[in-house]
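Risk register update: the risk that structure generation would not scale has been downgraded. Supporting records follow, first protein first.
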Amino acid sequence: MKTIVWDIDDVLNDLTRSWFDSVWKRENPEMEMQYEQLTLNPPHELLGMSREAYQCSLDRFRLSSEATEMKPDSSVLNWFNKWGAEYRHIALTARPIKTVSPAVSWLMDNFGEWFEGFGFVPSRRLDEHPKQPDKKKRDFLAWLGKANYFIDDHVENIEGSDELGIRSFIAAQPWNGGNMTVIEILETINRENAKNLPVNEK
């Protein structure tokens, strides 16, 4: 059985879009910036903010009830209902330590019946001093040694994964130049594993 490692933010959920729509646009109603124009991530320079101000705003959103209530993409949820049990699933996120617990809760509330593991590498903040050994997602994947597929929205997170024998995909977002949605990535994974899937469901 193949193992898929999943980023959470902006892959399994719409964190940045949700923050942009419900926080930044509300606080900056005079600005005409659209989500599709966020060609950098972090997008603070495009939004006229300092990096620290952006991080503080995003982290507050991560801890909010609005973030808790984010809905997963229905097509991805449908894929899990149909195919999820044919793979092992592990989540791998990069977040500040104080915001990791809400990510676990969101994942379990929406995809908990399929996920068997959760890992994170800490996003650095001035008020946190993490002691985890892994600095990058690649470090975690090398230690894990079980991943067949890795889905993320940041190109730098998948760099070097092929050296680990991992087939990686970039989930399309304005900042990464990706050309495949998450569901298109999953359909590709299914095609590569067609011979291992139930015959009547190929």
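Supporting record for the second protein:
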Amino acid sequence: MGARDLMTVRTEVVRTAMVGRLVDLIRAEPAPAPESLARVPVGDHHLAVAGYNLRRVEWRLFEPARRTLPELAQRLDERRDGRDSDQDAIAFVAGELASEEPLERPDPEDDRAVTWRVPGPGGHVRHYVALELIGARPAELKRAVVYGFLVRCCEEALEARGAD
């Protein structure tokens, strides 16, 4: 276990035991309609919805996923600073972070891999879920999944701030 409380697991176990189940649950989720999901910078709206639903499913299944990523609230505050609405700030921050996410399987130490920094099952699980959702289409579409995922993470950060 490292500084981020990572646990070593075998890739084939993750893919067999978790990814398929998560994808099934994601596809069973009702479609959300936040305005910021309509602004997918890369990819398609359906993949952004799937990414959003990934975070909703994680939140229900994994206790660590019920925590927010503190840096998101700070980034949203910096972006809003009297200029943007919440939805505009969410779309900007989610788009910026999604564009930095590695298309290949992310390393936990890669600072670009926000999917490792968000509390929950980790970047490898999220990577394999994205690949399953994308199917045979271009890897670049992973960013649409990550975008939707981050839209929900940003909403959680704002909700947590309101609860304080």
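The chain has a mean pLDDT of 88. On this basis the risk owner (M.S.) recommends closing the item.
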